[in-house]
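Request from the bench team (R.T.):
"We need a structural guess for the complex before ordering more 1,3-dihydroxyacetonephosphate. Sequence and SMILES attached. Just send the tokens back."

Command: build protein-1,3-dihydroxyacetonephosphate structure.
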Amino acid sequence: MAKDTKATRPTGRVPLMAGNWKMNLDHLQATHLVQKLDWTLRDAKHDHSAVEVAVLPPFTALRSVQTLVEGDKLDLRYGAQDLSPHTSGAYTGDISGAFLAKLGCTYVTIGHSERREGHGETDEVVNAKVKAAYTHGLTPILCCGEALDVRKEGRQVEHVVAQLRADLDGVTKEQAATVVIAYEPIWAIGTGEVATPDDAQEVCAAIRTLLAELYSGDVADGVRVLYGGSVKAANVAAIMAQEDVDGALVGGASIDPAEFAAICRYRDHVTAG
Ligand SMILES: O=C(CO)COP(=O)(O)O
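Reply to R.T.: structure attached below.
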């Protein structure tokens, strides 16, 4: 059993469990999943102010999720998996942050390794997208993480710190105070491999140290740093027991409503003290 470290996590940092559905679930399936997730959390009397829950569906399901969340006054937050660095214009296939804001999105993931690798997104592009998110009042879930070769060379902290320095370039202190950072080691994504809790803590702590270097005041203490990579109900409590881990960005396990609800309810599986 993992030890409940809530007492050591500054109270301002409300844990966030965010489900990145990736390219799964059409708008009808999305409606079913959100309903089941909501019912399960309601049955468990989930306190959304203690552990925030968000879903990140494909663009095509956002309107359905919005209708459900607003119509039934659900406590769930939602957001998109990407956005354009531009606001409008001749950018075929791109989606503006302005459209996402109109759909009531709270979050947008930026710089996921599947976009960095599959779509050639550089840190420069990621940085422009982070700024676009703020332009439209969206909260970025800024993703970072190292590949296996970098980890094998023991350069994971150096790699992640360099990514984030570039991704946050020009981001103001006020903006940075609301960013969510997701550390997702690429070798642990969709592989069943999970970084050990100590591995996750090492990099998440280094991220907080970088934030303290970049921004004065209490920014570093307030920013939520998530871990992502094969998170499941069975391993989430041990990861959440780490002092600098404030939630999880969940892929595969988030499209099973019972499993994702159990992840959100990780505190049911920890001992007090
Ligand atoms: O990429 C991830 C979340 O963004 C992690 O995916 P998995 O949970 O499927 O490993």
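Two things stood out. The longest helix spans residues 197-214. The chain has twelve helices and eight strands.
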